[in-house]
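Hi V.,

Quick status before I head out on leave. The structure for the redesign project is tokenized and pasted below; the design run finished overnight.
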């Protein structure tokens, strides 16, 4: 419904944690304002980029394989349990992060 859409848009836009949504090919399709602040990018700079733009170089190849595996068998889960995870800011500096994966079916 229209109310549900407006509510979801408000939750996404006002979330205090960064949210990055990707499609099945790993391309970034949507980022919220908190993610823009966290990574130092504007949304239009990230849209259509591979999510690996946010992954430190030494982990990119492995991340792509894990991402493809998730897409083949999606489930709600945390990533890297028990490990320190980092993403890359625009200025190529690392930032600690937590990742959770949720599978959303495109309509």
């Amino acid at each position: 419904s229209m109310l549900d859409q407006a509510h979801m848009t408000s939750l996404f836009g006002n979330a205090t944690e960064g949210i990055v949504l990707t499609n099945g090919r790993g391309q970034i399709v949507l980022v919220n304002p908190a993610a823009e602040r966290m990574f130092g990018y504007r949304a239009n700079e990230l849209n259509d980029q591979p999510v690996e733009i946010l992954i430190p170089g030494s982990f990119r190849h492995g991340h792509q394989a894990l991402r493809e595996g998730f897409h083949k068998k999606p489930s709600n889960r945390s990533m890297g349990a028990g490990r320190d995870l980092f993403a890359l800011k625009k200025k190529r500096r690392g930032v600690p992060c937590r990742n959770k994966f949720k599978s959303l079916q495109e309509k």
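Above is the designed sequence. The mean pLDDT is 76.

G. will cover questions while I'm gone.

Best,
W.
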